[in-house]
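[Help] Beginner question about ligand-bound structures

Sorry if this is basic. My supervisor gave me a protein sequence and a SMILES string for LLZGTKA7 and asked me to "get the holo structure". I don't really know what that means in practice or what format the answer should be in. Inputs are pasted below exactly as I got them.
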Amino acid sequence: MSKTIVALDFSSKEEVVDFLKQFTEPVYVKIGMELTYACGLEIVETVKKMGHHIFLDLKLHDIPNTVKGGMKNLARLGVDMTNVHCGGGIAMMKAAVEGLKEGAQGGERPLCIGVTQLTSTSQEAMNEELGIEGSVIDCVLHYAQNAKAAGLDGVVCSVHEAKKIHEVCGDDFLTVTPGIRLASDSVDDQKRVATPQLAKEEGCDYIVVGRSITKANDPKATYEQIEAIMEG
Ligand SMILES: O=c1ccn([C@@H]2O[C@H](COP(=O)(O)O)[C@@H](O)[C@H]2O)c(=O)[nH]1
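Answer (accepted):
No worries, everyone starts somewhere. Holo just means with the ligand present. The predicted complex, written as structure tokens, is below.
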């Protein structure tokens, strides 16, 4: 499976099918809120039938019982990876894994990862708007340790926290890192950004790349250039 996960932040099935037509080999793609709310969960089956691997990024965050029920139903879609917000706490994250196991009915459950602090959150915003004291790295590490204690397979974090998370939680605890930009790209709404090269150097397991690929003049060539860095 590739190490570059392409965020399919489109609003119609036609755009997705058109975009994926360029790729003759299976790609690891991310289906998030924009696409799911536009097309419904049927889009998962459409993309699966095209042969691609799927990270279903719906970031569940609710009471444990509700998350368990939600995950039980999501597991039946046969996606490769899905997620919750670590902010929901350890009991909620444990419930997510239980739901996935039940939904997978003895088969292989999807990987479950926890979103720590969004890559669009700066140090200043975390302290002043969210009212969370301390450094982003300490908060992200704390969430990562909670996620590990709950039985999750890894976390979503920025490239800048990935090395420390592996040191503390182990090399097999996955780090999935959005906020990826090529040196020439605009940062847009992201705050904790890094290049694919730095992601590789910091040992990130997967990078999530949206606009740098989907809005590139040649998305396939850009994807291949980024994937070559990650696999290099
Ligand atoms: O902390 C997070 C969690 C998820 N995302 C998602 O990743 C992509 C990034 O898109 P870009 O266009 O490359 O900025 C997007 O789908 C987000 O929902 C994130 O950016 N940060």
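A couple of things worth pointing out: The mean pLDDT is 98. Residues 6 and 29 are 5 Å apart (CA to CA). Feel free to follow up in the thread.
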